[in-house]
Amino acid sequence: MTFATPISFTEDKTVFDYAAWDRIWAGAFDDAPSQNTDAPLWVSKNLPDGSHGIFALADDEVVGFVSVFTDDILHAWIADIAVHSDHQRTGIGKELLRCVTEKFGHLSIKIHAVQEPAQSLCAKAGLTHRTDLTPCARKGAEQGTWQADALAEMGLSVSNDIAPGHKTKVQELLTGAGFQSASAALDASGGLEKFLGSLVTAFLVLDGDEPVAFARVISNNSNAAWLSELCVREDRRCEGIGTALLNDVNRTFASQALYLAAPSSTVAFFEGQEMPPKTKWVKVFHMVPGET
Question: pTM value?
Answer without folding.
Answer: 0.89
